[in-house]
What does this fold into?
Amino acid sequence: MEYAVNIILLFFAYSLLGWCIEVILKYIQFHRFINRGFLTGPVCPIYGSGAVLITIVVGGLGRLESGIGTTFALSFLICGALEFMTSYNMEKRFHARWWDYSQKPMNLHGRVWIGNLVLFGLGGVAIIHIINRSFTGFWILFLFPQN
It folds into this structure.
C-alpha cells in the first residue's frame, strides 16, 4: 500500500514540477506566460509518467544494478520512447504537434532530440539517486506520522 501511495504522489509531484519548469523556460524565452500543458491545471503528465516509469524500472533492478550509468541509460531510453510515443499518439488523436524538434540536429522524425534525451538521462539520475529519497521520506512522515 505504501509503495502505491508513493508512486501516485511521485506522479503528481513530477507532473507539477515538469509543468513549472516548462512554464518558466517559456517565460524566459518569450517574456510572457504560456501554459505548456494540454490539460486544465498545472500538470504535464508526461513528466509524471516518465518519473514513475524510471522509478519502477530502476527500482526493480535495485538488487542487480543501481549505478549511475545504468540509471542514466535506462532514463535516456525509457523517456525517449515515452516522448516519441506520446508525440505520435497526441498528433494522431488531436491532429496537432505539441513539440517539434525537426530543426535540431540528431532528431527522430522531430519527435525526440538527442539534447533532451541527455537531459532525461541526467534527470533520471537526479530522480533516482537524490530526489525520490527525499520525497518518499517526507511523504512517509507527512502521511503516516508516528505517534
